[in-house]
Specification:
The complex is a heterotrimer of chains A (271), B (265) and C (328). Chain A has 271 residues and is an all-alpha fold. Helix content of chain A is 82%, strand content 0%. In chain A, helix 5 packs across helix 7 and helix 10 packs antiparallel against helix 11. In chain B, helix 4 packs across helix 5 and helix 7 packs across helix 9. In chain B, 37% of the residues are buried. Classes of the chains: A mainly alpha (271), B alpha/beta (265), C alpha/beta (328).
Chain lengths: 271, 265, 328
Amino acid sequence: MSDVTLSTAPLPRRAKRHARRDLTSIGAVAAIMIVLVALWQIAAAHGWINGQLFGSPAGIVKTAQIALAQGTLVPDTLTTLYETVVGLVIGSGLGIGLGLLLWFVPRVSGVAEGFSVLLNSIPKIALGPLIVIWFGSDMTSKVWLAAISTFAVAMISSCAAAREVDRDLLNLFRSFNARPSMIFRKLIVPSALPWIFSTLRVNIGFALIGAVVGEYIASQAGLGHAVFVAGSLFDLNTVWLGIIVLTLMATLLTWIVQFAEKRIVTWKTKR
Amino acid sequence: MPVARLSVTDLTHTFEAEHGGAVPIFAGLDFSVGSGEIVSIVGRSGAGKSTLFNLISGLLPPQAGRIAVGPRADGTPGRIAYMLQKDLLLPWRSVLENAVLGIELFRKVTAHDLERARHMLARYGLGAVAQAYPHSLSGGMRQRVALTRTLLVEPTLVLLDEPFSALDYETRLALEDDVMALRQSNGTSVVLVTHDIEEAIAMSDRVIILGGRPARIEQALDIKLSVEGSRTAISAREAPEFRMWHAQIWGALRGHSTQLGGLAA
Amino acid sequence: MENKTVKHLRAACAAAFAMGLVAHGAYAAPPEKVVVYQAFQSIQYLPLYVGIDKGIFAKHGLDVQKVTAGGGAAGVAAVIGGHADFSLQDPMTAILANLKGATLVNVANVVAGVPVWVIAPGNSPLKSATDLAGKNVATALPPTTSTYLLQRMLKEQNIGDVKLNTVQIGTELSPVGAGRSDAAALYEPQADEGLAQGYKILYAFPKAYPGGYAFSTIDTLAATIKTKPQMVSEFVKAIGEAEALIQSSPATAKAVAESEFPTLSKGVVDSAVDRLIGQKIYAENPEISEQAFRNALDLQEFVGNIKPGSVTYASAVDNSFAKAASGK
């Protein structure tokens, strides 16, 4: 019997076409960005817009050089990065763990989910001043804000992912007399992984917002702190620099999660 | 008289309708399946085939009556394993890992188990893809992996719910041969729930026609086909009696339907 | 036929009626709408509130709407963007904007002294500023004048190893209460709130700065001065009157303060107003002297936000309106 019709045979050609399409779109985006930045610099240099009130690309580069030389840019970046990552890990970790474990107690999960929907409805930003008063103005409060911002979403979606497991698969496991702990380990957790990764990608943004807003409210260091102070001093080049570095940070974190996703969730193929 | 692999005695089950009424599905159903026997259960849609499947597989406890799984020849308890139209393979596990899933869920997988698994996969032509993942296999190959998984737990009776209807004709015939070969190699009994009358006739020793409300066994036909040597999917369909059996079963189902038609409002 | 008396009477009535119409027409001009952005709702800004609540601005034909910006920079930005006619905050914020190309001019002084105190709990072992060495002081997030003053004071007095716990302005007492900080540098009414709880003053910044201190002023766009000089003049006059009223009638000042800060206890509000009047924090007249300006500029140059020599008094201050207001 040799009906070995592996549907992967045409994939190399399809993959190449997809890769080419991705490259062209990246290239197009890059080209548009370069044109916009060039126009901005020209406008600032010729005085069509006030280069000091709006900031200018050349000014941003100079500001970056000064910040690096003064040794503030790297520590600020690392501070915000630490707050975001630790907050993300704690918040998402707790949320995912709790959300999945609720599968064992379906009656409680309804109540727990109600609470987390409530928690999610609270604008975390509004909790900011409270968190700062409770935890002080150093990194701890930002980590907590980032964690709170990610917890509810992580818990709700992993709870849903655990419940969405195919009924027939569950029945199959039960027909083999599998204990609940086995079903959890071998069925629920692996099938929830794709959902968990997509939630993680979304939570990167939330964690970053939590950390930066915490820094706006009260902080001694960090990119949000730098942006806040610079804004008050009308130093817009530093504000832009902060925005750019924050964007790069978010992009880097997203790439890392996507990379991990590709390695771990190997069974999701794009058709 | 050899002990039956499966005996269904006085099975009674009702279905809770939305508006509170209890609709009786079975009222005192009796039948049994012997060792090495292949029995098909056919009936019109809604006759209760799926419910019977769930009751026999143990997924649904009967409200009254008994469903007993007979012991093996050596006295140890028998076991039912089932296959659905969906292959239910875990996408994050390789073919080999999927095959041993049934074993893994009730005890530790040994090297001997893996050896048996590889052997059986090879028998079904899947030796080369043991390390591949389900998404890279065709539908027919995936159902064969499911069959391997089902057989590796050494069931005394295999319960099938239209497992081949989603496959192309050629693959379906090949898999019918695989199932029929089971009784030769292991003496495994098979209960096949199906819509496909041709498949039922080709594969079965007995065809049970389910009908009425509550459902009961309208007819139980012993299928005798004149073929050279042991039956195959193709040779069965070419047997002279094939058309006759088909007409009889088809007539029984349609006759039943005109009866219902008369009663329908 | 009418006799002469009736004719005269009729003419007189007509004339009076006509004059009444004219007079009515002059006073029927609606008050001019003016928007003022204040950095915070602050008891230090009492002259503005007295001007509004006591109808002084209305008397000068101005309908003043006050908006709390949430920070000095936001207020200045509102003036630059045209959403506000005036803003009230640290004049140095307007200077910083000017260094980036804006054209703001400071026209009236409101807070003419330094309303910053360093306080510690009553049972604290700290007695004076020098005891702050090695301790933790809660102070407002920079850029803010209280923190800059604290930093300069610590440097000038060589008090080393002081950790600054920067928090949102107005919440400086919280870390001290929670035990995370040993002392706090703060404005009113927090100073008197602390004192009411038994806190003691370790260091008081409102020493007499010769010539005053341009701590918080009213600024506007140079363009506004050009196009609406009458409006600016009336505004500054009204401010001057409000400032004079505070000095002459502290009771009125306290009443306005109590209504503007209803969530604070009356005792704290009254003590704060007394202290701000007694320490000559509230400007007695709206003039911004060159010395007052220089005192404020020195601090920014010390901190490094402004390079020495980049700002002149003449470019940043237009004292003519304040002088005219005081001249009355």
